[in-house]
């Protein structure tokens, strides 16, 4: 079953194969304002807006994992170089920088 997108976005509720669940949550006023603004992109439907946020987060996690895997060799090289620099005294910790600067 394909559902029409709302505001040019895929309908996040379309991913549910079976029933929905009801949850009661408490959020601060600023979060409520942001969620309400986002819901306006989903015809005011807070449930769809929240579902879109959750699924976007999942997509970002997957993107980060793929990016790390694609750059694994470079990241490892940078880490190893930083460790050598630190051991040989060519780098300082953030705590040392703050102490030296009086922060």
Explain what this protein looks like in three dimensions.
This protein is an all-alpha fold and 103 residues long. The protein folds into two domains: 1-70, no CATH class; 75-103, no CATH class. The protein is built from four helices and no strands. The protein has helices spanning 29-39, 46-70, 72-87, 94-101. Helix 1 crosses helix 2. The longest helix has 25 residues, at 46-70. It is elongated and about 60 Å long. The N and C termini lie far apart (59 Å). Mean pLDDT is 84; it is low at 1-9.
**Alpha-beta classification:** mainly alpha
Strand content: under 5%
Rg estimate, integer Å: 22 Å
How would you state the average pLDDT, rounded? 84
Distance between the termini: 59 Å
The share of residues in helices is 55-70%
Assembly status: single chain
Q: Please write the string of helix (H) and strand (E) elements.
A: HHHH
Give a quick set of tags describing it.
103 residues, 2 domains, 4 helices
Short structural summary:
With 103 residues, the chain is mainly α. The protein contains four helices and no strands.
Lay out the secondary structure.
Elements: H1 29-39, H2 46-70, H3 72-87, H4 94-101
């Amino acid at each position: 079953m394909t559902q029409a997108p709302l505001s040019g976005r895929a309908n996040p509720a379309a991913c549910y194969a079976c029933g929905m669940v009801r949850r009661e949550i408490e959020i601060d006023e600023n979060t409520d304002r942001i969620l309400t603004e986002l819901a306006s992109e989903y015809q005011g439907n807070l449930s769809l807006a929240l579902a879109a946020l959750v699924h976007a987060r999942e997509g970002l996690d997957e993107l980060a994992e793929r990016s790390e895997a694609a750059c694994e060799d470079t990241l490892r090289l940078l880490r190893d170089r930083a460790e050598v620099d630190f051991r040989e005294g060519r780098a300082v910790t953030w705590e040392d920088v703050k102490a030296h600067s009086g922060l």
